[in-house]
Amino acid sequence: MQGITLEPATEDAVTNADTTTTGTTGANGADWPAWQESWDRQQEWYMPDREERFRIMLDMVEALVGTTPRVLDLACGTGSITARLLTRFPGATSTGVDLDPALLAIAEGTFAGDGRVSFVTADLKDPDWPSRLPYDSYDAVLTATALHWLHSEPLAALYGRIAELVRDGGVFMNADHMIDESTPRINAAERALSHARRERARDAGALDWAAWWQVAAEDPVLAVPTARRFEIYGEHADGEMPSPAWHARVLREKGFGEARPVWCSPSDTLLLALK
């Protein structure tokens, strides 16, 4: 992997389902900061404005719930939102929830020993997943580039559960691909430009999603959780990317008082819902 030097591991980083953990990954030789950096570069291959999305997301957290929020990092992956949250707001606390054992291994290794952060392994399609969380309510529930893996019906059900977790006056934000199907020519032009840019970056050595996972599968620490990850998800997931208007409407129907985009790019939207 470019930019990563890995040393032999002494143990596998395996997440125990149904358990809330705080910094459980021990000293196993893995260079967690390097894995975080590599994940960021791979994600930026798809979203060059990713950091701007995070900045606006945290701007709105500060504007609506202050600088010491209790946050649920939903479908947290490696903890990208949590890392930026704690850098900007050292007094914040974060619960990360995900099902991916490989990405959770990186997250847990990164935040090991940080009492502000805990992680939960859960399937967001399971109606009972909120019962595994350490808190009954949160000031903010934040997610990015994850919920497009769900079809509309389970996503709407998930929005209902999120509404129950957000306190009155709290916020939910989803930064993701949200496609307006009423503008097919604009959408096609954006896709063509993005694909051309990605091909140039790949030719220059950037890792895409598949290449990144191939390297993770060969790593002595991540090989086992990566194999488990593909047992859970397979090679890919077929979800949906409804429009921002759909997301805003459903969030209102599920119990939020207000909902609208607060940032967008040609392909992505950061949608905020206020309880």
Descriptive account of the structure:
With 275 residues, the protein is of the alpha/beta class. The chain has a single domain, classed as 3-Layer(aba) Sandwich (Rossmann fold), CATH 3.40.50. Helices cover 41% and strands 19% of the residues. Strands 1-4-3-2-5-6-8-7 form an eight-stranded mixed beta sheet, with helices on both faces. The N terminus is likely disordered. It comes from Streptomyces adustus. One of its GO terms (molecular function) is methyltransferase activity. Keywords: Methyltransferase, Transferase.
Helix percent reads 40-55%
Low-pLDDT windows of residues = 1-26
Number of continuous helical runs: 9
CATH homologous superfamily title: Vaccinia Virus protein VP39
The CATH C-level class name: Alpha Beta
Q: Order of strands across the biggest sheet?
A: 1-4-3-2-5-6-8-7
Average pLDDT metric: 89
The total number of structural domains is 1
Largest sheet geometry: 8 strands, mixed
- As for the CATH topology, it is Rossmann fold
Structural class: alpha/beta
Q: Tell me the Rg in angstroms.
A: 18 Å
Domain Methyltransferase: 71-170
Region (Disordered): 1-32
Keywords: Methyltransferase, Transferase
GO molecular function, one term: methyltransferase activity
